[in-house]
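Listing S7. Sequence submitted for prediction.
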Amino acid sequence: MFRRLISSIFFCCVLSALATYVAADKLKFTGGHAKYQFVFNAFPDDSLFLDVVESPALDQNADFRLKFDWRSDKVSLVTDYQFIAQHGDSVTLSRGLPGSVIMQNLVPNDDYRLFDLTHIISKQDNSIFAHRFDRLYVDITGTNAVARLGRQAISWGNGLIYTPMDFFNPFDPSAVDKEYKTGDDIVYGQYLQKNGNDLQSVWVMRRDNSGDISNDVDSIAVKYHGFAGNHEYDLLFSEHFGDTILGLGGLADLNGAIWRGDITLTHTNNSANVTSLVTSLSYSWVGWGHNMSGVVEYFYNGFGQTDGDYSPLSLISNPALAERIIRGELYTLGRHYVAASAMVEMTPLWLLTPNVFINASDGSFLFQLVSSYDLKQDWQLLASVSLPVGATGTEYGGIDSSITGKQLGTEFNLFAQLSWYF
């Protein structure tokens, strides 16, 4: 209750400040977008999801974003307002299987963030309407330093598909629309050296299950980015949800290709040491008259299951993995993964990208074909087809639901999104 009161006061103060700037003609509208999504999911006959919804499951979603900022010589205020509408079977499914470690929130919530800047307008059996501030921060810029306070997003690490060094709301590797990461309440600082190296620091403040601000659930991280000749490197130290994380990463040119990689060592609060790493090779070329680029990436998930049992009961027995899945830090259940992606410029306005995500431990994989087409200025059509392949019990073939004869699996996914930018 106290948290809601404080957040409401903060929310009102922000709105009052914005109104003041609008009245003073200092707040500028910097753009936004309106997105409509259609999602089609088909399930196999033994899927547990069919106990809650029918196959195919259909969803129609909308995302509306307005961006404003106010700037002076060294200080700026950045605000992104977001309206979200979710309607369809995914909402019904999330209500029918609550508390599952494999079900993600359809609408970002601020239950554990410092400020509650999300409000559910309406929530029914098959629809959710919400609005929120996804960005709301003050930026202070000096000659060699930057300070940023408030709701914002950061991305660290050198992984292109899997990102063990980026544990602040990373994208699902198979996500199609990766335009905006979900923001957190962060105190961020950056110091730029004359030689081009820089030091970044982050403090993410959160609340525990009781709604209290607690050091046990916050994150403090420092990353140094440097240059060594034609190579770049990153050094990371972090205290994250009570764990200590050390990271080392970098990138280098290899005869026209780019090698990237990160390795992290996590000392968990139960005294276990867990190593994860990602390494990739990317290359661009011209083939058959088209610009092309490709990447092959290997990911070792040190938190993953070692026995190939991905059922919810088994995941709960691996709390380090389950916690990271629930927090949205990890999206992989096993240990060894290989991913490949190729981007083909069919025309200057049409990009076609086939992807494959392979669980090398159980042999299952997800094939995905993504199309991005600029219909006209400010209009884009983004579409994808995803096909999971694998035996029953594998990650992509359908993991055991712990209910006899029922699997948690899908057999086909179609995603289409029409975006208008203004």
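Caption to Listing S7: primary sequence and predicted structure tokens for the chain studied. DSSP finds four helices and 21 strands in the chain. The longest helix spans residues 2-23.
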